[in-house]
Amino acid sequence: MSCLRTPHLLKEYFSDELSTVAREKIEAHVSACEYCRAELTDVLEAKEILEGWQQQKAPHWDRGSELFRREHQTVDQHLTFWDRMRWQLIPTSASFLMLLLVLFNLQLSSDQTGFTISFGSPAVSSSYLKHELQIFDEIQRSELENAIRQLEVRQDSQNMELIRSVMYKNQQDMLSGLEGIYALFEDQRLRDLEDMRIGYQQLMDSDYETLRSLRQLAQYVSYQE
Amino acid sequence: MHLIDEDTALVDAALKGSAHAWEKLVRRYEDRIYNQGLRLTGSRSDAMDLMQEVFLGVYRNLHRFRGDAKFSSWIFRIAHNKAIDMKRRKRLMPFVSNSTDQDGDMLDSFPGHSSLEAEEVFSERQNNKAILSLLSELPMNQRLIVELKIFQSQTFEEIASIQEVSVNTVKTRFYSSLKKLKTISEEKNVLS
Asked: Which of B23, B46, B171, B176 is the mutation pick for testing A, counting most A CBs within 10 A?
């Protein structure tokens, strides 16, 4: 016993978008056809057995996190030139700008009329330059005079201090010198007195000898006579 | 936020380097991919290998993911292709054609469970064992169709797109697969 429609009907039975009409047609046939009914029961039972699967929990694993982190770091290390430069763009631009300022001698000046930005050496008239130089010269001169004045004042005070110290030194030296001279004179005087005493003694001794010689001479003369 | 939008947001964040987003994305799909691996390979270690290969493939191709498609469809397509690659490489199928599991793991051991829990787990896993035993009798292309249609709730059109065959062929194979599973089930019941 078989039905030619069974394979077609059963494969359509599980279709995802089976219309209500088509389903009703299949169910009508299945309820009427014993073979198709038995077949449908079999495949539904098989489906039911499979749907009895109990979900198992996956064993613990690192979920590829380590690989993910490592690979991501590797990706970071292989950034393109522009990716790397993106973060260095600001300092590089600033350096380049500074270089341009230096190369083109960019100047920013402000006066009563406002701000002025100029490239290269500023163009000035000779009269303005002369005037500026004169002012500069006067300022320099007054500053120089002031400096000289201050220097003189400072020099005077230093000189006075020096003289004072020299005089004090001289005074000290002189005092010690006088004391030395006095000691020397005193020493000399004592020595002279001693010499005089010795000389006088010698003189006295000599006179005595002379006197004795004269006495002897007188005695001799008297004796001769 | 809608789940699909959340998937897309996580993909975007992962592409920008967020490891947290990547982990969250993996957590959302790892159990489904692992169970898919179990049903397609019948082995915990192979299922684990398959799951890791799938997520590696997802990571490598994340930049190719377009938000116009569902992320779930995209990842199941990758899992489908990885399973075929593994089948070609390892030639492990049929994986539980006899009563001895090659790993001797998922069907017989219950680490970390009390006796009562182990009984429940045993019952659950006996059920899973029976399903694996049935699936092992199907050729890979039919097993994949059953997997995608019943467990991943993909439409026939999506399955046809993944397998690069016509929708009609997919429908026919699906019906044939269920019919064959019923026949095998009856045979095994008679044998047991």
From this structure: B171
Q: Do A43 and B106 touch (CB under 8 A)?
A: no
The domains found in chain B, sorted by start residue, are 3-191 (1.10.1740.10)
The pair of structure tokens assigned to A26 is 């299949």
CA A71-B62-B91 angle, 5° bins: 90
Residues 6+ apart with CB under 8 A from A61: B30, B48, B51, B52
Is a pLDDT exceeding 70 seen at residue B17?
A: yes
pLDDT at B96: 47
Euclidean distance between CA atoms B152 and A67, whole angstroms: 28
Q: What is the pLDDT of residue A139?
A: 92
C-alpha–C-alpha distance, residues B79 and A47, integer Å: 22
User: How many CB pairs lie under 8 A apart between chains A and B?
Assistant: 114
Alpha carbon distance B141, A95 (integer Å): 66
Burial of A50 (0-12, 13-18, 19+ CB in 10 A): buried
Q: Is the dihedral of CA B155, B161, B164, B165 positive or negative?
A: positive
Q: Please answer whether residues A83 and A75 qualify as being in contact, where contact means their C-beta atoms are separated by less than 8 angstroms.
A: no
**Mind listing the pLDDT tens digit for each residue in A87-113?**
678 888 889 888 988 888 777 777 777
Residue in chain A closest to B27 (alpha carbons) equals A63
What is the enclosing helix (H) or strand (E) of A118?
A: strand A114-118
Helix B71-90 with B156-163: angle, nearest 10 deg:
40
Of A125, A92, A119, whose CA–CA distance to A105 is shortest?
A: A119
What is the dihedral sign for C-alpha B64, B67, B69, B71?
A: positive
Q: What contacts B1, CB < 8 A, 6 or more positions away?
A: B9
Return d(Cα B22, Cα B14) in angstroms, integer. 5
pTM above 0.90, yes or no: no
CA distance A17 to A82: 52
Instruction: Tell which residue, A34, A8, A97, A54, has the closest CA to residue B171.
Output: A8
Amino acid B162 reads I
Three-state DSSP class for residue B139: coil
ipTM: 0.79
Across the interface, whether the CB atoms of B171 and A11 are under 8 A apart is answered yes
- Beta-carbon contacts of residue B51 (< 8 Å; ≥ 6 apart): A58, A61, B30, B33, B34, B37
| Domain edges within chain A | 6-51
